Amino acid sequence: MAGPPERIVLGLERMRAAMALLGLPARLPMPVITVAGTNGKGSTVACLETFYRQAGYQVAAYTSPHIWSFNERLRLNGIPAPTADWDTALDDIAAVAGTVALTFFEIATLAAVKILCAAQVDLVILEVGLGGRLDAVNAFDPDCSVLTTVDLDHQDWLGPDRLSIGREKSGIFRPNVPALYGDAANPCASVLEAAAQNQVLLQLLGRDFDFDAQARRWWGFGQVLAMPEPLWPAAAQWQNLALALAAVWFLQKKLPVSDAALSHWSIRPDLPGRAQILRPWGENGPRLIVDVAHNPQAVAQLATLLEGQGGRCHAVVAMLADKDVAGTLKNLLRRVEVWHVLEITDTPRAASAVSLQQCLWEMGAAHVKIGENMQTVTQALSSVLTADDSIVCFGSFHLVKQLPRQWLDGASV
Protein backbone atom coordinates (compact mmCIF):
# COMPACT_ATOMS: atom_id res chain seq x y z
CA MET A 1 0.00 0.00 0.00
CA ALA A 2 2.96 2.30 0.59
CA GLY A 3 6.72 2.42 0.33
CA PRO A 4 9.04 1.54 3.24
CA PRO A 5 8.87 3.50 6.51
CA GLU A 6 12.17 5.20 5.60
CA ARG A 7 10.54 6.93 2.62
CA ILE A 8 9.83 10.50 3.73
CA VAL A 9 7.79 12.77 1.47
CA LEU A 10 6.54 15.85 3.27
CA GLY A 11 3.36 17.69 2.25
CA LEU A 12 -0.33 17.77 3.13
CA GLU A 13 -1.90 17.44 -0.33
CA ARG A 14 -2.09 13.64 -0.21
CA MET A 15 -3.44 13.66 3.34
CA ARG A 16 -6.20 16.12 2.50
CA ALA A 17 -7.20 14.19 -0.61
CA ALA A 18 -7.36 10.91 1.34
CA MET A 19 -9.24 12.55 4.22
CA ALA A 20 -11.90 13.76 1.77
CA LEU A 21 -12.29 10.25 0.35
CA LEU A 22 -12.44 8.71 3.83
CA GLY A 23 -14.81 11.31 5.27
CA LEU A 24 -12.31 12.45 7.92
CA PRO A 25 -12.62 16.14 8.85
CA ALA A 26 -9.68 18.37 9.70
CA ARG A 27 -11.59 19.41 12.81
CA LEU A 28 -12.19 16.24 14.81
CA PRO A 29 -15.28 15.95 17.03
CA MET A 30 -13.19 15.92 20.22
CA PRO A 31 -10.45 18.28 21.49
CA VAL A 32 -6.98 17.77 19.98
CA ILE A 33 -3.56 18.63 21.40
CA THR A 34 -0.74 18.57 18.85
CA VAL A 35 2.82 18.17 20.16
CA ALA A 36 5.94 18.97 18.12
CA GLY A 37 9.58 19.62 18.97
CA THR A 38 13.12 18.38 18.46
CA ASN A 39 13.16 16.65 21.85
CA GLY A 40 10.70 16.16 24.68
CA LYS A 41 7.66 15.19 22.62
CA GLY A 42 7.36 11.71 24.07
CA SER A 43 7.50 12.72 27.73
CA THR A 44 5.15 15.67 27.17
CA VAL A 45 2.63 13.37 25.51
CA ALA A 46 3.01 10.80 28.30
CA CYS A 47 2.35 13.44 30.98
CA LEU A 48 -0.68 14.83 29.15
CA GLU A 49 -2.08 11.36 28.56
CA THR A 50 -1.69 10.46 32.23
CA PHE A 51 -3.18 13.68 33.60
CA TYR A 52 -6.35 13.18 31.58
CA ARG A 53 -6.59 9.47 32.33
CA GLN A 54 -6.29 10.26 36.05
CA ALA A 55 -9.18 12.70 35.62
CA GLY A 56 -11.33 9.90 34.20
CA TYR A 57 -11.26 10.80 30.51
CA GLN A 58 -10.92 8.41 27.57
CA VAL A 59 -7.65 9.40 25.88
CA ALA A 60 -6.06 8.52 22.55
CA ALA A 61 -2.33 9.20 22.09
CA TYR A 62 -0.74 8.82 18.65
CA THR A 63 3.08 8.69 18.70
CA SER A 64 5.97 7.54 16.54
CA PRO A 65 8.08 5.66 15.90
CA HIS A 66 7.23 2.46 17.69
CA ILE A 67 9.89 0.38 19.41
CA TRP A 68 8.68 -3.23 19.16
CA SER A 69 5.19 -3.35 17.65
CA PHE A 70 3.35 -1.13 15.17
CA ASN A 71 0.32 -1.20 17.49
CA GLU A 72 2.27 0.95 19.97
CA ARG A 73 1.74 3.98 17.73
CA LEU A 74 -1.80 4.46 19.01
CA ARG A 75 -2.66 4.06 22.68
CA LEU A 76 -6.28 4.02 23.80
CA ASN A 77 -6.35 4.72 27.53
CA GLY A 78 -2.73 3.64 27.83
CA ILE A 79 -3.13 0.37 25.91
CA PRO A 80 -1.96 -0.17 22.30
CA ALA A 81 -4.89 -0.26 19.91
CA PRO A 82 -5.88 -3.86 19.07
CA THR A 83 -4.62 -5.43 15.85
CA ALA A 84 -8.23 -6.00 14.76
CA ASP A 85 -8.90 -2.25 14.92
CA TRP A 86 -5.80 -1.50 12.86
CA ASP A 87 -6.78 -4.14 10.30
CA THR A 88 -10.26 -2.67 9.89
CA ALA A 89 -8.93 0.88 9.49
CA LEU A 90 -6.20 -0.19 7.07
CA ASP A 91 -8.75 -2.05 4.94
CA ASP A 92 -10.70 1.21 4.58
CA ILE A 93 -7.56 3.10 3.62
CA ALA A 94 -6.56 0.44 1.10
CA ALA A 95 -9.66 1.38 -0.86
CA VAL A 96 -8.33 4.90 -1.42
CA ALA A 97 -4.62 4.05 -1.64
CA GLY A 98 -4.97 3.32 -5.34
CA THR A 99 -6.20 6.86 -5.90
CA VAL A 100 -3.78 8.70 -3.60
CA ALA A 101 -0.11 7.67 -3.38
CA LEU A 102 0.23 7.73 0.39
CA THR A 103 3.42 7.24 2.42
CA PHE A 104 3.81 4.77 5.29
CA PHE A 105 3.42 7.52 7.90
CA GLU A 106 0.39 9.02 6.18
CA ILE A 107 -1.34 5.64 6.12
CA ALA A 108 -0.50 5.07 9.79
CA THR A 109 -1.84 8.51 10.73
CA LEU A 110 -5.08 8.08 8.80
CA ALA A 111 -5.63 4.63 10.30
CA ALA A 112 -4.98 5.90 13.82
CA VAL A 113 -7.48 8.74 13.40
CA LYS A 114 -10.11 6.37 12.07
CA ILE A 115 -9.61 4.11 15.09
CA LEU A 116 -9.77 6.88 17.68
CA CYS A 117 -12.85 8.39 16.06
CA ALA A 118 -14.58 5.01 16.18
CA ALA A 119 -13.57 4.70 19.84
CA GLN A 120 -15.23 8.08 20.56
CA VAL A 121 -12.50 9.17 22.95
CA ASP A 122 -12.73 12.41 24.93
CA LEU A 123 -9.31 13.74 23.94
CA VAL A 124 -6.78 13.16 21.17
CA ILE A 125 -3.04 13.82 21.59
CA LEU A 126 -1.14 13.84 18.29
CA GLU A 127 2.65 13.73 18.22
CA VAL A 128 4.23 15.18 15.09
CA GLY A 129 6.42 12.73 13.21
CA LEU A 130 8.84 15.11 11.47
CA GLY A 131 8.93 18.89 11.58
CA GLY A 132 5.42 20.24 11.80
CA ARG A 133 4.19 22.38 8.93
CA LEU A 134 4.14 19.58 6.34
CA ASP A 135 3.80 16.58 8.67
CA ALA A 136 0.73 14.36 8.18
CA VAL A 137 -0.44 15.05 11.75
CA ASN A 138 -0.77 18.76 10.86
CA ALA A 139 -3.69 17.98 8.55
CA PHE A 140 -5.82 17.92 11.72
CA ASP A 141 -6.59 21.16 13.54
CA PRO A 142 -5.54 21.42 17.20
CA ASP A 143 -7.33 23.05 20.10
CA CYS A 144 -3.90 23.60 21.63
CA SER A 145 -0.41 23.31 20.13
CA VAL A 146 2.72 22.43 22.11
CA LEU A 147 6.24 23.04 20.80
CA THR A 148 8.76 21.59 23.23
CA THR A 149 12.18 22.58 21.85
CA VAL A 150 13.83 23.65 18.61
CA ASP A 151 17.30 22.33 17.88
CA LEU A 152 19.30 20.72 15.09
CA ASP A 153 17.94 17.44 13.73
CA HIS A 154 16.54 16.25 10.39
CA GLN A 155 18.31 19.09 8.58
CA ASP A 156 17.96 17.31 5.25
CA TRP A 157 14.20 17.89 5.44
CA LEU A 158 13.74 20.87 7.76
CA GLY A 159 16.58 23.19 6.81
CA PRO A 160 20.21 23.77 7.75
CA ASP A 161 19.84 25.87 10.88
CA ARG A 162 17.72 26.47 13.96
CA LEU A 163 15.77 29.34 12.36
CA SER A 164 14.70 27.15 9.44
CA ILE A 165 13.74 24.31 11.76
CA GLY A 166 11.79 26.67 14.01
CA ARG A 167 9.77 27.91 11.02
CA GLU A 168 8.85 24.37 10.08
CA LYS A 169 7.91 23.30 13.60
CA SER A 170 5.81 26.41 14.27
CA GLY A 171 3.68 25.36 11.30
CA ILE A 172 1.49 23.49 13.80
CA PHE A 173 0.29 26.84 15.20
CA ARG A 174 -3.16 28.17 14.23
CA PRO A 175 -4.49 31.74 14.42
CA ASN A 176 -6.26 32.48 17.71
CA VAL A 177 -5.50 28.99 19.06
CA PRO A 178 -3.34 28.64 22.21
CA ALA A 179 0.24 27.60 21.49
CA LEU A 180 2.83 26.74 24.14
CA TYR A 181 6.59 26.93 23.60
CA GLY A 182 9.24 25.49 25.91
CA ASP A 183 12.64 26.96 24.97
CA ALA A 184 12.70 29.31 27.96
CA ALA A 185 16.45 30.02 27.98
CA ASN A 186 16.85 30.57 24.25
CA PRO A 187 13.58 30.90 22.34
CA CYS A 188 13.98 30.53 18.59
CA ALA A 189 13.38 33.88 16.85
CA SER A 190 11.58 32.28 13.90
CA VAL A 191 9.04 30.69 16.24
CA LEU A 192 8.28 34.04 17.87
CA GLU A 193 8.04 35.70 14.47
CA ALA A 194 5.68 33.04 13.10
CA ALA A 195 3.39 33.44 16.08
CA ALA A 196 3.29 37.23 15.75
CA GLN A 197 2.69 37.16 12.00
CA ASN A 198 -0.15 34.62 12.23
CA GLN A 199 -2.03 35.98 15.27
CA VAL A 200 -1.13 32.94 17.35
CA LEU A 201 -1.80 33.06 21.09
CA LEU A 202 1.77 32.06 21.96
CA GLN A 203 2.56 31.33 25.60
CA LEU A 204 6.25 31.04 26.43
CA LEU A 205 7.70 29.02 29.29
CA GLY A 206 9.62 31.34 31.59
CA ARG A 207 7.62 34.37 30.49
CA ASP A 208 3.92 33.50 30.62
CA PHE A 209 4.10 30.44 32.86
CA ASP A 210 6.88 28.83 34.88
CA PHE A 211 7.73 26.35 37.64
CA ASP A 212 9.87 25.84 40.72
CA ALA A 213 11.24 22.30 40.75
CA GLN A 214 12.44 22.49 44.33
CA ALA A 215 9.05 23.61 45.64
CA ARG A 216 7.21 21.47 43.07
CA ARG A 217 5.03 24.42 42.04
CA TRP A 218 3.74 25.50 38.64
CA TRP A 219 2.23 28.91 38.07
CA GLY A 220 0.72 30.83 35.21
CA PHE A 221 -2.39 32.64 34.01
CA GLY A 222 -3.32 33.58 37.56
CA GLN A 223 -3.11 30.06 38.94
CA VAL A 224 -0.66 28.11 41.12
CA LEU A 225 -0.59 24.31 41.07
CA ALA A 226 1.32 21.57 42.86
CA MET A 227 3.37 19.47 40.43
CA PRO A 228 4.12 15.75 40.52
CA GLU A 229 7.67 14.52 40.07
CA PRO A 230 8.72 14.38 36.40
CA LEU A 231 9.44 11.07 34.69
CA TRP A 232 13.09 11.44 35.73
CA PRO A 233 14.94 14.24 37.57
CA ALA A 234 16.24 16.42 34.74
CA ALA A 235 15.68 20.08 33.96
CA ALA A 236 14.20 19.23 30.56
CA GLN A 237 11.68 16.90 32.18
CA TRP A 238 10.45 19.63 34.51
CA GLN A 239 10.02 21.83 31.44
CA ASN A 240 8.02 19.17 29.60
CA LEU A 241 5.85 18.67 32.66
CA ALA A 242 5.26 22.43 32.87
CA LEU A 243 4.18 22.49 29.20
CA ALA A 244 1.73 19.66 29.83
CA LEU A 245 0.21 21.48 32.81
CA ALA A 246 -0.17 24.66 30.75
CA ALA A 247 -1.98 22.72 28.00
CA VAL A 248 -4.36 21.24 30.56
CA TRP A 249 -5.09 24.75 31.85
CA PHE A 250 -6.02 26.00 28.37
CA LEU A 251 -8.45 23.12 27.85
CA GLN A 252 -10.08 23.39 31.29
CA LYS A 253 -13.37 24.71 29.91
CA LYS A 254 -13.68 21.77 27.52
CA LEU A 255 -12.14 19.07 29.72
CA PRO A 256 -11.97 20.09 33.40
CA VAL A 257 -9.21 18.45 35.43
CA SER A 258 -9.02 18.80 39.21
CA ASP A 259 -5.92 19.97 41.06
CA ALA A 260 -5.78 16.55 42.71
CA ALA A 261 -5.45 14.83 39.32
CA LEU A 262 -2.53 17.13 38.46
CA SER A 263 -0.54 17.11 41.70
CA HIS A 264 0.64 13.48 41.80
CA TRP A 265 0.74 10.29 39.72
CA SER A 266 -1.88 7.74 40.58
CA ILE A 267 -1.08 6.22 37.17
CA ARG A 268 2.64 6.21 36.37
CA PRO A 269 3.44 7.68 32.92
CA ASP A 270 4.90 4.98 30.70
CA LEU A 271 7.75 5.88 28.35
CA PRO A 272 10.03 2.92 27.54
CA GLY A 273 13.48 3.70 26.21
CA ARG A 274 13.77 7.22 27.59
CA ALA A 275 16.41 7.73 30.29
CA GLN A 276 15.58 4.40 31.91
CA ILE A 277 17.97 3.20 34.60
CA LEU A 278 17.58 -0.56 34.91
CA ARG A 279 19.15 -3.53 36.72
CA PRO A 280 18.47 -6.46 34.37
CA TRP A 281 21.39 -8.48 35.81
CA GLY A 282 20.37 -8.04 39.44
CA GLU A 283 21.72 -5.86 42.22
CA ASN A 284 25.30 -7.05 41.70
CA GLY A 285 25.28 -6.40 37.96
CA PRO A 286 25.94 -3.07 36.24
CA ARG A 287 23.30 -0.45 35.60
CA LEU A 288 21.79 -0.37 32.14
CA ILE A 289 20.87 3.15 31.08
CA VAL A 290 18.68 3.17 27.99
CA ASP A 291 17.80 6.23 25.92
CA VAL A 292 16.69 6.65 22.32
CA ALA A 293 18.57 9.99 22.23
CA HIS A 294 19.87 10.55 18.70
CA ASN A 295 20.73 14.24 18.31
CA PRO A 296 23.08 16.67 20.09
CA GLN A 297 20.47 18.24 22.36
CA ALA A 298 19.09 14.91 23.54
CA VAL A 299 22.51 13.39 24.20
CA ALA A 300 23.60 16.50 26.09
CA GLN A 301 20.68 15.80 28.44
CA LEU A 302 21.75 12.16 28.66
CA ALA A 303 25.26 13.31 29.61
CA THR A 304 23.79 15.23 32.54
CA LEU A 305 22.04 12.06 33.71
CA LEU A 306 25.30 10.09 33.50
CA GLU A 307 27.17 12.67 35.58
CA GLY A 308 25.10 11.54 38.54
CA GLN A 309 26.27 7.94 38.19
CA GLY A 310 29.58 6.71 39.60
CA GLY A 311 31.90 3.97 38.40
CA ARG A 312 33.06 3.12 34.91
CA CYS A 313 30.86 3.83 31.89
CA HIS A 314 30.72 1.77 28.70
CA ALA A 315 28.56 2.96 25.80
CA VAL A 316 26.75 0.81 23.27
CA VAL A 317 25.76 2.98 20.33
CA ALA A 318 24.35 2.78 16.81
CA MET A 319 23.00 5.65 14.75
CA LEU A 320 21.46 6.60 11.43
CA ALA A 321 23.84 8.06 8.88
CA ASP A 322 21.69 11.14 8.25
CA LYS A 323 22.10 12.29 11.86
CA ASP A 324 24.76 14.67 13.19
CA VAL A 325 26.91 11.78 14.35
CA ALA A 326 29.94 13.75 15.54
CA GLY A 327 27.86 16.48 17.18
CA THR A 328 25.85 13.83 19.01
CA LEU A 329 28.66 11.58 20.21
CA LYS A 330 30.96 14.36 21.40
CA ASN A 331 28.62 15.10 24.30
CA LEU A 332 29.59 11.81 25.99
CA LEU A 333 33.31 11.75 25.23
CA ARG A 334 34.35 12.88 28.71
CA ARG A 335 32.15 10.34 30.50
CA VAL A 336 32.50 7.15 28.44
CA GLU A 337 35.61 5.04 28.94
CA VAL A 338 34.95 2.35 26.32
CA TRP A 339 32.74 2.57 23.24
CA HIS A 340 31.04 -0.42 21.62
CA VAL A 341 29.68 0.52 18.20
CA LEU A 342 27.05 -1.54 16.42
CA GLU A 343 25.43 -1.34 13.01
CA ILE A 344 21.66 -1.11 12.66
CA THR A 345 20.52 -3.82 10.27
CA ASP A 346 16.84 -3.06 9.67
CA THR A 347 17.10 0.19 7.71
CA PRO A 348 19.22 1.41 4.78
CA ARG A 349 19.69 4.71 6.62
CA ALA A 350 22.09 3.09 9.12
CA ALA A 351 25.58 4.43 9.72
CA SER A 352 28.20 1.69 9.41
CA ALA A 353 29.98 0.54 12.54
CA VAL A 354 33.28 1.37 10.86
CA SER A 355 32.20 4.97 10.23
CA LEU A 356 31.12 5.37 13.87
CA GLN A 357 34.44 3.94 15.05
CA GLN A 358 36.36 6.30 12.76
CA CYS A 359 34.34 9.30 13.94
CA LEU A 360 35.08 8.50 17.58
CA TRP A 361 38.77 7.96 16.90
CA GLU A 362 38.98 11.32 15.14
CA MET A 363 37.47 13.00 18.20
CA GLY A 364 40.07 11.41 20.48
CA ALA A 365 38.23 8.39 21.92
CA ALA A 366 40.90 5.86 22.86
CA HIS A 367 38.89 2.66 23.26
CA VAL A 368 36.39 1.96 20.47
CA LYS A 369 35.32 -1.57 19.62
CA ILE A 370 33.02 -2.86 16.89
CA GLY A 371 30.49 -5.19 18.48
CA GLU A 372 28.90 -8.23 16.89
CA ASN A 373 25.36 -7.59 18.13
CA MET A 374 23.46 -6.25 21.13
CA GLN A 375 23.12 -9.57 22.92
CA THR A 376 26.80 -10.46 22.63
CA VAL A 377 28.02 -7.03 23.77
CA THR A 378 25.68 -6.58 26.74
CA GLN A 379 26.18 -10.14 27.95
CA ALA A 380 29.95 -9.76 27.86
CA LEU A 381 29.83 -6.43 29.69
CA SER A 382 27.46 -7.73 32.36
CA SER A 383 30.05 -10.30 33.41
CA VAL A 384 32.99 -7.87 33.78
CA LEU A 385 31.38 -4.68 35.10
CA THR A 386 30.24 -4.19 38.69
CA ALA A 387 27.20 -2.73 40.39
CA ASP A 388 28.94 0.66 40.48
CA ASP A 389 29.41 0.70 36.70
CA SER A 390 27.06 1.69 33.88
CA ILE A 391 26.27 0.52 30.38
CA VAL A 392 24.57 3.29 28.41
CA CYS A 393 22.68 2.19 25.30
CA PHE A 394 21.66 5.06 23.03
CA GLY A 395 21.59 6.48 19.51
CA SER A 396 18.38 5.29 17.88
CA PHE A 397 14.99 3.68 18.34
CA HIS A 398 16.36 0.98 15.99
CA LEU A 399 19.05 0.13 18.53
CA VAL A 400 16.90 0.22 21.66
CA LYS A 401 14.41 -2.23 20.20
CA GLN A 402 17.18 -4.86 20.11
CA LEU A 403 17.02 -5.03 23.92
CA PRO A 404 14.63 -7.55 25.47
CA ARG A 405 11.23 -5.95 25.91
CA GLN A 406 10.86 -7.32 29.44
CA TRP A 407 13.89 -5.27 30.50
CA LEU A 408 12.36 -1.97 29.45
CA ASP A 409 9.02 -2.97 30.94
CA GLY A 410 10.75 -3.52 34.31
CA ALA A 411 10.95 -1.05 37.15
CA SER A 412 13.53 1.71 36.96
CA VAL A 413 15.72 2.37 39.99
UniProtKB/TrEMBL annotation:
<dbReference type="InterPro" id="IPR004101">
    <property type="entry name" value="Mur_ligase_C"/>
</dbReference>
<protein>
    <recommendedName>
        <fullName>Dihydrofolate synthase/folylpolyglutamate synthase</fullName>
        <ecNumber>6.3.2.12</ecNumber>
        <ecNumber>6.3.2.17</ecNumber>
    </recommendedName>
</protein>
<comment type="function">
    <text>Functions in two distinct reactions of the de novo folate biosynthetic pathway. Catalyzes the addition of a glutamate residue to dihydropteroate (7,8-dihydropteroate or H2Pte) to form dihydrofolate (7,8-dihydrofolate monoglutamate or H2Pte-Glu). Also catalyzes successive additions of L-glutamate to tetrahydrofolate or 10-formyltetrahydrofolate or 5,10-methylenetetrahydrofolate, leading to folylpolyglutamate derivatives.</text>
</comment>
<feature type="domain" description="Mur ligase C-terminal">
    <location>
        <begin position="273"/>
        <end position="397"/>
    </location>
</feature>
<dbReference type="InterPro" id="IPR001645">
    <property type="entry name" value="Folylpolyglutamate_synth"/>
</dbReference>
<comment type="pathway">
    <text>Cofactor biosynthesis; tetrahydrofolylpolyglutamate biosynthesis.</text>
</comment>
<keyword id="KW-0436">Ligase</keyword>
<dbReference type="InterPro" id="IPR036565">
    <property type="entry name" value="Mur-like_cat_sf"/>
</dbReference>
<keyword id="KW-0067">ATP-binding</keyword>
<comment type="similarity">
    <text>Belongs to the folylpolyglutamate synthase family.</text>
</comment>
<keyword id="KW-0479">Metal-binding</keyword>
<keyword id="KW-0460">Magnesium</keyword>
<keyword id="KW-0289">Folate biosynthesis</keyword>
<dbReference type="InterPro" id="IPR036615">
    <property type="entry name" value="Mur_ligase_C_dom_sf"/>
</dbReference>
<comment type="pathway">
    <text>Cofactor biosynthesis; tetrahydrofolate biosynthesis; 7,8-dihydrofolate from 2-amino-4-hydroxy-6-hydroxymethyl-7,8-dihydropteridine diphosphate and 4-aminobenzoate: step 2/2.</text>
</comment>
<keyword id="KW-0547">Nucleotide-binding</keyword>
<dbReference type="Pfam" id="PF02875">
    <property type="entry name" value="Mur_ligase_C"/>
</dbReference>
